[in-house]
Amino acid sequence: MVQRPKNEAELQEREAIGVIRASRFIRRYAKAHTKISMGTVCRIHREIFSFAWSDIAGTYRGENLEITDSHHHPPHYTEVPGLMENADEELAEKLEAVHMAEGTIRDEVIDEESAVGAIDHVIKTAAWLHHVITYIHPFRDGNGRTARLAANLILERFGLVGISIKVEQQNKNRYRKALAQIDDHGDYEPLVEMMYEGLIERYEGVPMKFYPAKK
Ligand SMILES: Nc1ncnc2c1ncn2[C@@H]1O[C@H](COP(=O)(O)OP(=O)(O)OP(=O)(O)O)[C@@H](O)[C@H]1O
Ligand SMILES: [Mg+2]
């Protein structure tokens, strides 16, 4: 078992390496066409933390915690396995539906309307997975990173590219508010909008017409 480094700098270094590992894992997994489940989400978490903090890597938390600067109280730790199981079933249903969209994007004689709908469906499924992970907060730490990587796995599996959601200092509030908007009102729009922005960046501004209309 790898001990958690005592020194903050070393811990950060190891976590950074873990994120690189996890990104490599999702890229490979996206191509492999093996089932995506909450087990895969645990695997992403394990990739991030096995070197930095192996005690928590890929395992559900055994304690209650609060999220800094958020009014969402993650569920009691005893509820985590059950909630993850339910989410796993919901994920399987959602992915079943996205499979049908996949062919539309790949179709050579592309029907614009269904391609736009298919892309939107993939993005919304990724947004759902991102939020459900942060909402349940199944892990002791690294829930945000795991959620963002898991969302990228969905994007990449269904023919898009992984994105980088802006979570650094000046965008932190917007990101937190977008998640809170789902917690409080079931409104995915702000998070979906951030994901579209990430995609626009990756596609050099090309898919502007997919961008949801601003209210
Ligand atoms: N209101 C909220 N509802 C649900 N999730 C939230 C809310 N506010 C923040 N979060 C999520 O909680 C994450 C922080 O939890 P945690 O410390 O476990 O993740 P992390 O990966 O270590 O953090 P970071 O994302 O800062 O790298 C945020 O990144 C965000 O994804
Ligand atoms: Mg953290």
From TrEMBL:
The active site is at H137. ATP binds at D141, G142, N143, G144, R145, T146, A147, R148. The keyword Endoplasmic reticulum does not apply. It holds the Pfam family Fic. The keyword Zinc-finger does not apply. It comes from the Bacteria. Residues 36-197 form the Fido domain. Keywords: ATP-binding, Nucleotide-binding. GO terms for molecular function: ATP binding. This is Fido domain-containing protein. It comes from Candidatus Uhrbacteria bacterium RIFCSPHIGHO2_12_FULL_60_25.
